[in-house]
Structure formats: C-alpha cells, structure tokens
Amino acid sequence: MNLSYSPARTVALMDSQPLSLFGLSTLIQTIDPTCDIQIKESSLGKIAEAMMYQSVDILVTDLQSAEEDLQQGLDILLRLGSHYPDLNVVVYTFCHDCNALWKLLNQQNFSVIARGETMEDIEGFFKKAFAHKRVLSPVICSDLSRINQKNETVLSRLTPSETDVLKHLFNGMDLQQVASMKQLSIKTISAHKCNAMRKLGVQTDSELFVLLNNTF
C-alpha cells in the first residue's frame, strides 16, 4: 500500500509588535495546525536576511516596521517577491496608501488583507490566501478604488487616438496588428502607446495592463 506524504508548509512572520506576532502565530495554527512557523522577525530586513539561509513557503508580513518606513519595507518586499517567485506572500497591514498598495497588484502571489476587517472575515481571507487563492480584502479594494478614480481622471487627458490604441492592446492585439487595422505605421502606433504611458505614469507593460484592467 502506497502512502502519500505532504510535508508541512513552512511560514515566516514579520511584525514589529511581539503581541501581534503571537496573535498571527495563533491565527495560523488555527487555520492550519500542520504549518511550521520557522521564522519570526520584527522587520522585513531581518526577514530577508533570514530567508537567505532558511527557505519558506509562506510569508505573512506588514509593509513597514519600527526599522523601516513604508517605502523601504515595500522595496524589500518587492525584491523578495522577485527573488522567490513561488513564495506565497500574505500582506496583513494597516496601510491605506493607495499608491503603495497599487504596486503590489503586479505580484501574482501576493494577497493583501487589511487589519480593519472583522476577525471572522480575516480568518476566512487567510484560509483562502494559504490555499493559493489571491485575496484583496474589501477595505483594500476600497483603498485601491481611489487610485482608479485618479486613473480615470488621467485617462481623460489622453487623446482619442491614444485611448483607442490602449483599448486594442488591452484586448490582446499587438502593435503590428493595431497598425495594420488602423492603416498606420507601427512607429505611429508605438508613439501613441509611449505617449499614453508617459501621461499615465507607468513604465512597464505589466503596470499598464494592471491599470487598464482596473479602468476599462
């Protein structure tokens, strides 16, 4: 008889408050008693250092600590996401900065849960996130809606041609296909795209796609 064995998932926790670390540990053990919490640290810098020597499956973290401000914590977390593409990251945060939260949307393995949700909802969100289902809790979605409103205002600054090109690109066409359909040179279509990206304040195609996904 063959018996399958599933190794326990390993977890790293970051919170600058010892009481919060204890609460997170208790929550995780309630959700999945088989989880092995191997790293507990008070800053993302210490988490990054610890993960150089100990790999984990799940990271539960805030965006900042007593040792890092929001931008520093965000930079470290995004680097961790880049270095460990299979890492399941659960951001559990008081942060309501829509610009900072927006930067997390490009990270497919990141869930973002606000600490202002009810405890019953938080437990449900964590269960989904631990099951590799991406979660954006309602408070986070509300925060992000503010930047969507800003994006709609910025989109109004685009020319009709720039907006039309972006819609076709968002719907799956490439620059050559758009150029052929509109009977324009690919250089002209590319210029429309570049001008639109500059006005929208995005630098990569992935940032552009996320913005368009939340606007069109």
Q: What would you say this structure looks like, in words?
A:
- By secondary structure, this protein is α/β, with parallel strands linked by helices.
- 53% of the residues lie in helices and 12% in strands.
- It contains ten helices and five strands.
- Strands 2-1-3-4-5 form a five-stranded parallel β-sheet, with helices on both faces.
- It is elongated.
- The model has no long low-confidence stretch (mean pLDDT 88).
How are the strands of the biggest sheet laid out side by side? Answer: 2-1-3-4-5
Percent range for β-strand residues: 5-15%
- Structure summary, number of beta strands: 5
Task: Summarize the main sheet.
Answer: 5 strands, parallel
Continuous helix count: 10
Query: What is the terminal separation in angstroms?
Result: 55 Å
**Helical residues, percent:** 40-55%
Which runs of at least 5 residues are low in confidence (pLDDT < 50)?
A: none
Broad shape: elongated
Overall residue-averaged pLDDT value:
88
* SSE pattern: EHEHEHEHEHHHHHH
How do you describe this structure in short?
It contains 10 helices and 5 strands. With 216 residues, it is an alpha/beta fold.
Give descriptors for this structure.
single chain; 216 residues; alpha/beta; five-stranded parallel sheet; 10 helices; 53% helix
Write the topology of this structure.
Elements: E1 10-14, H1 18-31, E2 36-41, H2 44-50, E3 58-61, H3 70-83, E4 88-93, H4 98-103, E5 110-114, H5 119-130, H6 138-155, H7 160-170, H8 175-182, H9 186-200, H10 205-213
Parallel strand pairs: 1-2, 1-3, 3-4, 4-5
Helix pairs in contact: 7-9, 8-9
